[in-house]
Structures are given as C-alpha cells and as structure tokens.
Amino acid sequence: MFARTERLLLRPGWAEDAPALAKAIADEAIVRNLALAPWPYGLDEARAFLDKTADPVLPSFLLLRRGEGEPELVGGAGFGRKPGGGVEIGYWIARAHWGNGYAYEAGCQLIEIARTLGLPRLEAGHFVDNPASGRVLEKLGFRPTGRTVPRHSCARGSEVMCRMFTLELADAEEVMAA
Prior knowledge:
The chain is an alpha+beta fold and 178 residues long. The protein is 30% helix and 33% strand. It has a five-stranded antiparallel beta sheet with strand order 1-2-3-4-5, sandwiched between helices. A three-stranded antiparallel beta sheet has the order 6-8-7.
C-alpha cells in the first residue's frame, strides 16, 4: 500500500532502504521513545526490520519527503495489533525533521487509511517523558483514556510508563473537517 500527502510519500520499506533507515533512526533520542526498536540501531537492525513479513491488513510505512530531487526518508509510521486485539498507530521522525509537522501529517493519513480499512477505533500511547508525541496525538483528535501503564521499551531495556489514548474514527471525521 502506498499513500501520498501534501509533502510525504508513505510506502513500504524495501531492502535497499536499509542504509537510509539506519542513518535516519540511529539516534538514541528517537529510539528510546519507541517500544520495539533496539538500541543501538544500525544497519543490521534496519535490515532485520525491512526483512520482516509485512502485514497486508495493518501496513507500516517509511515516510519520504517529496519535493525537488530525490525523496528523503524522514521517518516511519504504521499500525500494529495489540495483544487485546485493538489496533494502534505508531510513528517516529528523524531528528533533523522534528518540528516540521510530519508526524501530524502522517498521522492524518494513517487515520484515513484506518477508516478505509473499516477500523472503528485506533489506540496509541506515548512514554510519559515524551510529551511532544502526546501533543501530536491530541492534535490528531486522540483522547486520553486516563490510563498510564507500564510498557516495555526495547531500547531502554526496561518498563516505561506509557500514557494511553484512543480515537473513535467517527470522531476523527469531525477533527479532520475542522
């Protein structure tokens, strides 16, 4: 699955993306805020991630900035199935591209994809020491559930408190129209 936004191309990752992926995400300030990414993160980890069998129902994407010249990898985003059956979104943006609205732009597209897939709701969370991610979720229309739960961070090698959010996709239509 591919998707386009005003500035981004969302597409699956390919084996030849490994060097760019490793370069973009190999920053402890990014990886420590992701549940599943290890630290350190290098070319071997990028290759392993890209070699995983893609879920055709719940896709993951690399985010490439479109514009003049060669597209540039600026992050990643996608869906995951939670142990309880719910579907969550996740995203990361390379440090050089923080503050440009790419997480919000990709999140809006993920919501549209979720709606197309017929999902009734989405879940998300952010580690409590990463409030910027919480602001992105709130701007996307996610609402705090009132639950803060421990979640394992592979990069940190420990449990980290995670603030949980939910989005009823009928509510998302109102947010996106505003």
